[in-house]
UniProtKB/TrEMBL annotation:
A motif (Q motif) lies at residues 132-160. It catalyses: ATP + H2O = ADP + phosphate + H(+). Keywords: ATP-binding, Helicase, Hydrolase, Nucleotide-binding, Nucleus, Ribosome biogenesis. This is RNA helicase. It comes from Oryctes borbonicus. Residues 548-611, 629-690 are annotated as: Disordered. Residues 132-160 form the DEAD-box RNA helicase Q domain. Residues 348-528 form the Helicase C-terminal domain. PANTHER family: ATP-DEPENDENT RNA HELICASE DBPA, ATP-DEPENDENT RNA HELICASE RHLE-RELATED. Belongs to the DEAD box helicase family. DDX27/DRS1 subfamily. Residues 163-337 form the Helicase ATP-binding domain. One of its GO terms (cellular component) is nucleolus. It is an enzyme of class 3 (hydrolase).
Length: 690
């Protein structure tokens, strides 16, 4: 009998293959036949259709398919267009000479002495709880039924620590690693408290603030599933979705509002019947991101309108000094729950690095194509630094036959939701994204995370690679690191618990993909040029429609904002990545004119090295800004001693108390007694002299 069993100790080697890695799909023992067609077609995403009124229009994939079709016809010299089929799978493109194995080495870590005395206080505090089941947490039956429907068996450490404390109404500052169930940790006690609310009047009692739209959609879906057997109303208020539908939902005063800061302020200023006066629970998810400089002014405006007697819950995967300061200063007797400070990656994550020499920075795209087309063919996320780079890689890998989608801020919200949903449904194999997808998103089954460029800080790296190896599963991260990024690589290797691998792609494979990219460059430029012309055309049409409305006497009512146009422009310039930012409005106009002149003068084609150097320059500017912010001296907080009298107290002095004077052993009392004794001694000496 042939033994087909696998040895558990053998490490999986991620090398090029012609076959895709198939997921093991065993028969579900809990399989049940449905009773109706509606139940069979039930989908959690259908609840979002009421917020999405515009269709997700994206012509990039059509252009890629057309370009591949034309190139295949040119190669085959075949004029029969209808009989030709374009393969969208990488297996047809991969040849036998590309199956050469990559050279993988283990990077040794330098031994260093353990300075346990220098560790921070919060790292040593571990929240523990004896609760081993949701039944021991005093949750109501509707929530327990929803937990059973969602197949939750045992609570995670952050859930078992948070739920009992949050039910008491205490303020919480919680920190746990990515993928440990923080959403259920704060939503279950919140929904439990809302079950006992007065039903006579509809009031918005809970506000959940999130930094990104996709994270808000995800929390909305989880919350709807947890509250499916209750009468609790939950509303979603994020940018990019239909404004009128959100206004109608907020006018009904739902119990829970999940929002991003910008859209929430828009509704506070533009929806008269909606306010935050009745907020009883304020939840900040990804609190470290919510408290950075990009959301600073918006967060001040929101918290200023919330009730002071609220319960505040702060949750984050990485704990920064800003979050600690907020927890210490603005929360009322907060409970700090540090299950995991998340300063290390997941224990079951395999970390790999591809070193790029200083004169080989232009090879990044060919290295990425070799990794995706040969080795990591499915369930892969590629993180890039900018939206422009994400779109280019989408076109590039699409022309190579990879089923790929993109996710970044230049897309409309319906396009972003559609890309995320199709990637979850495995209609796409690869997702190229900016850091908008680096926080909080839980996409099941992700095996690989590739960093096209190293992130600016270690915290950003932990968030990116945290998209894989979640909830005890395994995963791989592959990072392309140049000479400018060696510092962060050394820091990652220093903190790694498992051996870190170094991957070297054979030179002949790189040369082959270089020639492929050079051959595809005209097609990429053509697609980008077509999209640019389409944008100009749609912009012109919009301007013509506005002019037509103005001629008819129709005026568009502008929605109010808490900042003036000048303040918003100054804030945008302050947050922009530039060498010498100026906050003067005249300098802003001059700068815009100079930029336009540079664009007109620059007629030559942009080389791969120029693109990468521009990305590295932006990365260096971002790192310098974060370093300056970290080195900035913290604000000193004055502490008033309750026992000491105020400075300028002109009230009458209290009468002397014999017991108090005898027992007063303070420094001030001793100084007073010394002064009285010296004065008496001087008076006696003066009397003798007389």
């Amino acid at each position: 009998i042939v033994n087909y069993s696998e040895e558990s100790d053998v490490e999986v080697t991620f090398q090029p293959t012609k076959q895709k890695q198939q997921t093991k799909k065993d028969f579900d023992i809990n399989f049940e036949f449905v009773t109706s067609v509606e139940e069979y077609q039930k989908d959690a995403w259908n609840d979002l259709t009421k917020y999405v009124k515009r269709k997700a229009k994206s012509k990039t994939d059509e252009k890629i398919k057309k370009a591949r079709l034309i190139s295949q016809l040119d190669d085959d010299n075949n004029d029969q267009l209808n009989e030709t089929k374009v393969s969208t799978d990488q297996d047809a493109v991969l040849s036998d000479d590309e199956l050469i194995h990559d050279n993988i080495k283990v990077k040794k870590k330098k031994r260093e002495s353990n300075n346990s005395g220098n560790e921070e206080f919060f790292d040593n505090v571990v929240a523990t709880s004896d609760s081993k089941s949701f039944y021991e947490m005093n949750l109501s039956r509707p929530l327990m039924k929803a937990i059973g429907e969602m197949k939750f068996v045992h609570p995670t450490p952050i859930q078992s620590s948070t739920i009992p404390v949050a039910l008491l109404g205490r303020d919480i500052c919680g920190c746990a690693a990515t993928g440990t169930g923080k959403t259920a940790a704060y939503m279950l006690p919140t929904l439990e408290r809302l079950l006992y609310r007065p039903i006579e009047s509809a009031i918005t009692r809970v506000l959940v603030l999130v930094p990104t739209r996709e994270l808000g959609v995800q929390i909305y879906q989880v919350s709807k599933q947890l509250a499916q057997f209750t009468n609790i109303e939950i509303a979603l208020s994020v940018g990019g979705l239909d404004l009128k539908v959100q206004e109608n939902m907020l006018r009904k005063n739902p119990d829970v509002v999940i929002a991003t800061p910008g859209r929430l302020i828009d509704h506070l200023k533009g929806t008269p019947s909606f306010s935050l006066d009745s907020i009883e629970i304020l939840i900040l998810d990804e609190a470290d991101r919510m408290l950075d400089e990009f959301f600073a002014e918006q967060m001040k405006e929101i918290i200023k309108q919330c009730s002071r007697t609220r319960q505040t819950l702060l949750f984050s995967a990485t704990m920064t000094e800003e979050v600690e300061d907020l927890a210490a200063m603005s929360l009322t007797k907060p409970v700090r729950l540090f299950v995991d400070s998340n300063k290390e990656v997941a224990f079951n994550l395999r970390q790999e690095f591809v070193r790029i020499r200083q004169d080989k920075e232009a090879d990044r795209e060919s290295i990425l194509c070799a990794l995706v087309c040969r080795t990591f063919k499915s369930r892969c996320i590629v993180f890039v630094q900018t939206k422009k780079q994400a779109h280019r890689i989408h076109i590039l890998l699409g022309l190579l036959g990879v089923r790929i989608a993109e996710l970044h801020g230049n897309l409309t919200q319906p396009q972003r939701l559609e890309a995320l949903q199709k990637f979850k449904n495995e209609e796409f194999d690869v997702l190229v994204a900016t850091d908008v997808a680096a926080r909080g998103l839980d996409i099941p089954g992700i095996r690989t995370v590739i960093n096209f460029m190293m992130p600016p800080t270690l915290e950003h790296y932990i968030h990116r690679v945290g998209r894989t190896a979640r909830a005890g599963r395994g995963g791989v991260s592959v990072s392309l690191a140049g000479e400018q990024e060696r510092k962060i690589v050394k820091e990652i290797i220093k903190r790694a618990t498992n051996p870190v691998k170094s991957r070297l792609i054979p030179l002949e494979i790189l040369e082959k993909y270089k020639t492929k990219l050079e051959r595809l460059e005209p097609q990429i430029e053509q697609i980008l040029q077509e999209e640019y012309q389409e944008r100009l055309l749609s912009k012109t049409e919009n301007q013509a429609n506005r002019a037509e409305k103005l001629l008819k006497g129709e005026t568009e009512q502008r929605r109010p904002w808490f900042q003036s146009a000048k303040e918003r422009k100054l804030e945008k310039n302050k947050l922009a990545l530039q060498d010498d930012p100026k906050t003067d409005s005249k300098s802003l106009n001059n700068k815009d004119k100079n930029k336009n002149k540079e664009r007109k003068q620059k007629k030559g084609k942009e080389t791969p090295n120029d693109r990468i150097q521009a990305e590295l320059k932006r990365l260096a500017l971002l790192q310098s800004r974060l370093a300056k912010r970290k080195a900035k001296p913290k604000r000193l907080n004055a502490c008033v001693d309750s026992t000491a009298p105020p400075k300028h107290n002109k009230a009458k002095r209290k009468k002397s108390n014999f017991t108090e004077e005898i027992c007063n052993t303070s420094r001030k009392g001793a100084k007073k007694y010394r002064h009285v004794q010296n004065r008496n001694n001087k008076s006696k000496a003066f009397g003798k002299a007389m």
